[in-house]
Amino acid sequence: MAAVCQVTGAKPGFGHSISHSHRRNKRRFDPNVQKKTYYVPSLRRKVTLNVSTKGIKVIDARGIDAVVQELIAKGVKL
Hints:
The structure is a single chain. This protein has a single domain, classed as CATH 2.30.170.40. It is built from two helices and four strands. Helix content is 27%, strand content 36%. The radius of gyration is 16 Å and the shape is elongated. It is α+β, with helices and mostly antiparallel strands.
């Protein structure tokens, strides 16, 4: 599963892990992306989304219908 949130668009960040001796190694900071299933009343079906924890808070605040309508307007296949 790709570490990209469908709601917020959060992607992995890149940087270095730095040891005590200050040696640097490349690493990747993945967002906390989870697969969540929501029932969307306007579509009358369940929709599975890959959302970050921030995306879950956005859905709670704005409502699943509003978020799904934005995704459909962007052209995301649900």
